């Protein structure tokens, strides 16, 4: 015989109810079937609300009427499908049951409270009526039906709301041999009886357990749990879209996964099946041809060391600690004996090796009762200060990694904890099962989904994902988007995906947790209605539990640079060509690095100096290897490199500045380049990297233009005035040329001092031939002298800068 259990969503409406009926009929024709049914979806919630609200003397009509309507809708649909279905008789039965409920609710209102015994009889009516409807359907189809009455034939022990079935006694009562082979067997889930013959419940969502108990009593060939997913996944597919379906699990793997929060199967389901080695199959009512997941005694790794990741929410953690615990025999026994007597389930235990403390977790609903019991048990020790006040932390979740293959595998714990660290998730406690089949970590509940996502990424997925949030979509930002689009296929071959989850300019913002479609991003941003707001971005990454967010700033705005410290603290990596953050006051400069270190996230700014040249990384590597910077000089501006190269070729200052502006080498107002401030910022960044504690005001700047030149004038007025300086510059260029030298705009670091100025260099200087927009940086160090380490290449242009930013974004994957 096959036992098939159908849950609430599988019975939610006439169509789903009929699907369940057809699957039972198909199984019956193949092998004889027993169907175990829950209440239709939403019914139990309505029934629970009825008794709770009646006890508070609150209105119950809405729940009452909506519950009846669900049943009426199903029976009307069944009758429409088959007019032999006993519509009148089934409706009369539904009305009679709800009339009884109405009477019980009135008694509850009078008493002002609901007894567990009464609550149990109300909460289970949905299952009872599911069976009545299914029986009427099969009789309309011409079948003979055998009803197993759990309130007479399933003996259970425990309270009215949560009991456990005695399989041996129940097997005798059900007496499988007495059931005719032609009969379709039906049993209501969720209910049983105690030794007084009273109705008891098997715990919320206990119909899976009911089905397993019936399968054990009937010695069934298989127990099938029909639900609304294709089987057991490596984790909840609603949280992680690329969760994998598991073809098979061992009994013990399934027990661990369900115990630690896997929703697809009730924690107690496996217990009755294990002694008789009855396989359990999880299948999808809406996709009945899918193979599902099989749970049995055969351990199959399928190449997976880990089978699943779960999160068990709504957990409270207790810490019992104090000097009086050290060497005191029986403390742990007293703690857990007290919990046991109070009927409080202990989910996880961890003890320090010093015996100074014991920590354990219980459901948060039991936290207040557990604290009161512990304070009563250890009243004397607390009063004598042998124990510290009992600590309780709420709003916690337990993240567990489960798999039979973990026993032989190495490094699972390391990868698990590394994944949590990289996702900026603090651990409250850790525990490993003695079987080595599971490792658990207690984390803040608001970080549970990130924890599952990050762990799944680390243990199951070779694909590395960057969720990018881009601010600034001008020349460089726009080019970066195009490069990301162009490289999508190349990166996919390397199992890397860059999802652009946000695009923002100074006024508007586009957001999509799954990654924006970039085909028409300019028009989409133009039509966006969401104003640019960093707080919205922060709320967004928390709401969607983004694991690896990268904040990319392609603006030159001081205001955006001022957000970096907060972004790093909140769990973003930060990548930027914007020099404003690294040249602000030293206090902010150090705060950025402290926040990056504390959150274990990266602050990357390779393009601050030299655009696409690997300047910062090479300097950092040299210093890390013990080298020291003794002297530096470099051409740090691509636009000034172009301008001074053309002066050497005979063009006037006004001509070459106009040309550079036209080609887009300078800012719209060329004075921003000619002032030397941009070079000063770059020089300060290098100086700070080398360990100099300098402010921007400490950098000596000699601009290309005389002080006060064109002050208060527009950019166009400035360009009109610029020819006034041509003769002076021409004479200066000619004079140096006569001595075999050329003019270059250079930043220098020497003896702890920074200076930006025009200098003349001869052909022995590495900067002599640098022009046409190239950058060149000469580092004279303890290791590199008298010939310096020279980095040279194009330092201007959107494509080069965007490529450098792109490389930094990819570096966030290796952290």
Rg from C-alpha positions? Answer: 36 Å
Strand content: 15-25%
Largest sheet: 8 strands, mixed
Number of strands: 31
**pLDDT average, as an integer?**
91
Q: Which percent bin holds the helix content?
A: 40-55%
Unreliable runs: none
Structural description of this entry:
With 815 residues, this protein is α/β, with parallel strands linked by helices. It is built from 31 helices and 31 strands. The strands form 6 sheets. It has an 8-stranded mixed beta sheet with strand order 3-6-2-1-9-11-12-10, with helices on both faces. α3 runs antiparallel to α4, α8 packs across α9 and α17 packs across α31. It starts with a strand and ends with a helix. The model has no long low-confidence stretch (mean pLDDT 91).
Outline of this structure?
This protein has 31 helices and 31 strands. With about 800 residues, it is an alpha/beta fold.
Task: Write out key terms for the chains shown.
815 residues; alpha/beta; 8-stranded mixed sheet; 7-stranded mixed sheet; 31 helices; 21% strand; elongated
